[in-house]
Specification:
By secondary structure, the chain is mainly α. The chain has helices at residues 3-24, 31-37, 41-46, 56-77, 83-93, 96-105, 116-120, 127-145, 147-157, 173-183, 224-241; strands at residues 189-197, 204-211, 214-221. The protein has a three-stranded antiparallel sheet. 58% of the residues lie in helices and 10% in strands. The longest helix has 22 residues, at 3-24. It contains eleven helices and three strands. Helix 2 (31-37) packs antiparallel against helix 8.
């Protein structure tokens, strides 16, 4: 591939990147840093660029920054969860499938700079490649703008989806509550949907959890399962906090 091809690709990247940052409401100063974040090794190889110009070092940094950012959020939002549960939640949030979901939700894939062969073989949709680019972008954002802007990005892109069905299941609060009730010999649990509202494409469910037929908590969610999990979470937090 020629220098002219490279120039066209870089100019197209800069235009798309500027539009994406504007859409996300994020500031940036050093666009070269972000170009590196989205440069796959195949792109670097095609144009015989310096090996260090691909995104793997930024991916390494972004992974650590993501872990810290998510850890702080979970620490603040789930004050009664033990370390083991927090670790499981974090692991699921920063794992490859979750990062692909976050990247896809904001359509980051078109920004990735690929070599010709990688492009032809579908690299742009390969989960490992997409999640690596997401981590590298976070690493670049941290170097360019600092941890506070990374947190703002996470508040838009990551935190609102932590309890989505796609990511739920790491901490199963229904199971935790059942085990707690069983260990304390407190009685029988039951769940009921008490409210269902909103249009078909945007339902909101409210569930209650009963202990020996007495309501102990309620929860809301976009699915029946999520609303029951939220009710169980509220009940578990309330009851275990009393100890």
């Amino acid at each position: 591939m020629t220098k002219a091809n490279k120039k066209i690709l870089i100019e197209a990247f800069e235009k798309r990147f500027n539009e994406k940052m504007s859409e996300l409401g994020l500031p940036y100063d050093n666009i070269a840093l972000y170009q590196q974040a989205f440069s796959h090794s195949s792109f670097i190889n095609d144009f015989n660029m310096e090996r260090s110009m691909h995104n793997e070092r930024l991916e390494f940094l972004g992974d650590a920054v993501l872990e810290l950012t998510v850890s702080r959020y979970l620490f603040d939002e789930y004050p009664h969860l033990p370390e083991g549960d927090l670790t499981k939640m974090r692991a699921t949030i920063v794992c490859e499938p979750s990062l692909v979901i976050f990247a896809t939700n904001i359509n980051l894939n078109p920004l990735i700079l690929l070599g010709n062969g990688e492009e032809k073989t579908g690299g742009r949709t390969r989960p490992a490649l997409v999640s690596d680019a997401f981590e590298a972008f976070v690493g670049a954002l941290y170097l360019d703008q600092g941890l506070e802007v990374v947190r703002q990005f996470a508040e838009q892109v990551i935190f609102p989806h932590i309890e989505d069905e796609q990511l739920m299941g790491v901490v199963d609060f229904k199971t935790k509550l059942q085990e707690y009730i069983h260990q304390k010999y407190l009685g029988q649990l039951a769940y009921h949907i008490i409210k269902e509202e909103g249009p078909a494409h945007h339902k909101q469910f409210t569930s209650e959890v009963l202990l020996n037929d007495a309501r102990i908590a309620t929860g809301q969610g976009r699915t029946k399962k999520e609303s029951e999990q939220k009710a169980a979470e509220q009940a578990y937090m309330k009851m275990s906090h009393k100890e």
